[in-house]
Amino acid sequence: MKVAVVGATGLVGSTIIKILEERNFPVTELIPVASDKSVGKVVVYKGKEYPVVSAATAIAMRPALALFSAGGSTSLELAPQFAAVGCRVVDNSSAWRMKEDIKLVVPEVNGHVLTENDYIIANPNCSTIQMVMVLMPLHKKYGIKRVVVSTYQSVSGTGQNAVAELMNQRAGSKEHKVYPHIIDLNVLPHIDVFLENGYTKEEMKMAQETCKIMGDESIKVSATTVRVPVVGGHSESVNMEMIRDFEESDVKELLSNQSGVVVVDNPAMNGYPMPIDAEGKDEVFVGRIRRDHTQPNTLNCWIVADNLRKGAATNAVQIAKVLHNNGWI
User: Fold this and answer.
1) What gap in Å lies between CA 202 and CA 129, rounded to an integer?
2) What are the counts of helices (DSSP H) followed by strands (DSSP E) for the chain?
3) What angle do CA 316, 280, 63 make, to 5 degrees?
4) Which of 25, 88, 173, 257 has its CA 20 to 30 A from that of 222?
5) CATH 1.10.760.10 fits 2-124+312-325, yes or no
């Protein structure tokens, strides 16, 4: 199976390649794709060197699968070209997520929606992925009416330049080009651009994507997305109002049985999820599970995941695995 990774030299692209190898995905030939300035560089996969090529070269090679992590405009231009030669595309950008005829997939949550006719498939926003992994089993049992979420998102979500900028500031630099303000020893309540309604694009993505993935437009999601000076791993404080009441013990058992979710909830021993522990792992971690004492049928929890892995690369490879298991690639 020829597999193209578009954006192979970026943080998510390089993580995709790493996960393909870790999971022993049946790749017979890797096709790393990047911008013209990266063409000719070498990517190592399973001990073998593969040269980075242009998108045109990759399309001519007719891969069976292309995993995209190269930005929205690139995806809008190139994904249809790859699909036109019979290639399945899994895209990490926001370009295709809310298009009506494109599936938006977290395999453990709604992998069943994929069909043989899907040639372009959207990977959700990193923060949405980890949240719906926890929401979906609770929604099935109790029915979720409304979600209020505040995120604490690491700089690796912005890319390599953001990580370098944080490290430079930590070493004493006052320069900031990636973010509008210094991020070291600071918190920025600002991810993506501000919209006319006062929310950011990232916040509205979480609201819209959650409904689409969970197949229920009635769920209300109010988000505040925040950038914190952490290198890897996104955290979320989530408050959810249910239609039906619950017992905390039942919630913990339900989440413990959810594939891809790990409950870390032992306050007596200071046990709760932290990004430093989630980094490098594929699971979504949930803790601080407790009833909201201010109103009925409402639950608080804390959700953490590695944004480069389950929030992006791992989820994309898992989608590809579903396609492969069904014999579509």
Assistant:
1) 13
2) 10, 14
3) 30
4) 257
5) no
Give the total residue count for the chain: 329
Distance CA 80, CA 96 (A): 11
* Enzyme catalytic residues: 126, 234
Q: Are 92 and 60 in contact (CB under 8 A)?
A: no
How confident is the model over 305-325, as pLDDT tens digits? 999 999 999 999 999 999 999
Mean pLDDT of 192-217: 98
The Cα 191–Cα 226 span in angstroms is 6
pTM over 0.85: yes
Q: Which CATH class is domain 127-307?
A: alpha beta
CA dihedral 45, 46, 47, 53 (to 10 degrees): -20
Is the Cβ–Cβ distance between 98 and 209 less than 8 Å?
A: yes
Compute the chain's Rg from CA coordinates: 20
Q: Where are the domains of the chain?
A: 2-124+312-325, 127-307
- Is beta strand 298-305 parallel, antiparallel or unpaired with respect to 234-242? antiparallel
Question: From residue 243, how far is each of 216, 253, 291 by CA, in Å?
Answer: 14, 19, 14
Tokens read off for 314: 């791992």
